[in-house]
Amino acid sequence: MAYSYYTGIGCMHWNRSLIDIQEYSMDGVADLFIRLAFSELAANDKKDFPVAAIAIAVSIGSIIVILCGYVFWKLLAKHRERKRKSEAFLREASPKFYQGGMIIDDINQVKIEDITLYSFDMLANATDRFHSASKLGQGGFGPVYKGKLPDGQEIAVKRLSQSSGQGLQEFMNEVVVISRLQHRNLVRLLGCCTERGEKMLVYDFMPNRSLDAYLFGSHQEKFVDWSKRAIIIEGTGRGLLYLHRDSRLRIIHRDLKASNILLDEYLNPKISDFGTARIFGGNQDQANTIRVVGTYGYMAPEYAMHGRFSEKSDVYSFGVLLLEIVSGRKNSSFYDDEDELTLLAYAWKLWNENNIIKLIDPKIFDSSFEKQMVRCVHIGLLCVQEYAEDRPNVSTVLSMLTSDIAELPTPKQPAFTGGHASPQQVSSKSQGSVNADTITVLEPR
Q1: Is CATH 1.10.510.10 correct for 211-427?
Q2: Neighbours of 276 (CB within 10 A)
Q3: How far is CA 142 from CA 108, 137, 437, in A?
Q4: If you placed Cys at 116, which of 39, 150, 191, 254 could pair as Cys (CB 3.0 to 4.6 Å)?
Q5: CB-CB contact of 310 with 252 (8 Å)
Q6: Catalytic positions, please?
Q7: Quick one: three-class SS letters along 161-190?
Q8: How much is the pLDDT for 137?
Q9: φ, ψ dihedrals at 413, nearest 5°
Q10: Which residues pair with 189 in a beta bridge?
Q11: Residue 308 forms beta bridges with which residues?
Q12: What distance in Å separates the CA atoms of residue 4 and residue 12, rounded to the nearest whole number?
């Protein structure tokens, strides 16, 4: 039952009852070892286990909470620092957006905090590290990638290349201008990224890419019928009217063209690329610049030659776009074998020959819409007249398109139709890719 050992006595053991044992409090006594049933030992262990387990669990849990809190704090601090640097970059860059006295609006009216700032890693992951398979197109500014955010939202990421003709001013134009606009016919800017020396813009993804792909590019075989083209014309006009008259700002786009008209899943048009846009304030109706930017073939003559731009210079670009949509032909290409005429000159020649039907894209020609098609060509010629004062404003153009104005004035000779196409026009080619950009810088005469 028990045993003990004491020096001088030796080993002692008990077989049945524990008798002749005494408990002493002094030193020099021997320890008594007692045999117990296993069940009695297990019962004691069970009593001790909960206390030990709870102590261990609390200790481990506390360590985990502290570690998680530290990691979260580090991530939050990193996020705040990244956001602070991005906001500092945008604020520092903002005054450059107003150089030249052409923009009469206060940057402080735009809350930088309201602009979503994406991290480089998020956009890299969304585009599969900017993989070539995610690439939607290539413009003068750099590539555009399709991406998907963690919540499943599809986006288009415009990544400004280091060698781009566009710089900080164009980037800030897009960030500041588009963030203040909201219209169903304008592309929506979701945010931007300025980390690691990058300048990237994030937009809603447009599944049908750009209009030029349907008119003269890779989607040409999927031709758009006249009813849809008429909707694209009117929608683009309404977007332009919003820029000129209906928004809080008066904005001149300065690079309206087929590749800058993006199409959503229903082929509704969205005006994009505001890198060269300018804001007018007060009673300002025109401005001059020594830095002419845009695309040959769409530039109004007063802008291309003298650096003078206004609402009417956008109207000129809209007129070129309208003629391209109706005809399915590029203004930068040549027609009529004998004279090698540009689209504007060719349209003017057919107008004078009373043979404007020949200009209409044969894929969409329908005698039931013939009158409407001819009317659009007529309006297009009114928009591309040489002198700005002869061109209608956008609100008048829309009234003409919707037949609110029944009788149209006779157009005068368009600009750049006095002879053969200029070498500048010869060298200019539309790229037919999403948001394609052929920004050029000229010194006006």
Answers
A1: yes
A2: 23
A3: 29, 9, 9
A4: 191
A5: yes
A6: 255
A7: CCCCCCCHHHHHHHHHHHCCCCCCCECCEE
A8: 83
A9: -60, 130
A10: 203
A11: 288
A12: 5
- How far is it, in rounded angstroms, from Cα 207 to Cα 335? 32
| One CATH from 3.30.200.20, 3.40.50.300, 2.102.10.10, 3.20.20.70 for 36-205 | 3.30.200.20
pLDDT at 439: 46
Report phi then psi at 270, rounded to 5.
-135, 115
Look at strands 116-117 and 189-193 and give their pairing.
Answer: parallel
State the CB neighbour count (10 A cutoff) for residue 318: 25
State pLDDT tens for residues 9-65.
889 888 888 777 777 666 677 888 888 887 777 655 555 556 677 888 888 988 999
Strand (E) or helix (H) holding 154: strand 154-159
Helix or strand or coil: residue 10?
Answer: strand
Token pair 């800030």 is found at 172
SS3 letters for 96-137? HHHHHHCCCCCHHHCCHHHCEECCHHHHHHHCCCCCHHHEEE
List CB contacts of 183: < 8 A, sequence separation 6 or more.
Answer: 238, 239, 242, 246, 247
Q: How far is CA 224 from CA 219, 325, 329, in A?
A: 10, 10, 14
Domain layout of the chain by residue ranges: 2-29, 36-205, 211-427
- Residue showing tokens 């802008």: 303
DSSP 189-249: EEEEE-GGG--EEEEE--TT-BHHHHHTSTTTTSPPPHHHHHHHHHHHHHHHHIIIIISSS
**Whole-number pLDDT of residue 295:** 85
In the chain, the amino acid numbered 60 is I
CB 67 within 8 A of CB 61: no
pLDDT of residue 82: 65
Q: What angle (nearest 5°) sits at the alpha carbon of residue 36, between those of residues 32 and 41?
A: 115
pLDDT in tens, 153-180: 999 999 987 665 556 667 877 787 787 7
Instruction: Write down the pLDDT at residue 148.
Output: 95
Whole-angstrom Cα distance, residue 65 to residue 76?
Answer: 16
Quote the pTM value.
0.71
CB within 8 A of 187, min separation 6: which ones? 178, 203, 204, 206, 262, 270, 271, 272
| Integer angstrom CA distances of residue 177 from 103, 240, 434 | 11, 14, 20
Low-confidence ranges of the chain (pLDDT < 50): 95-110, 419-445
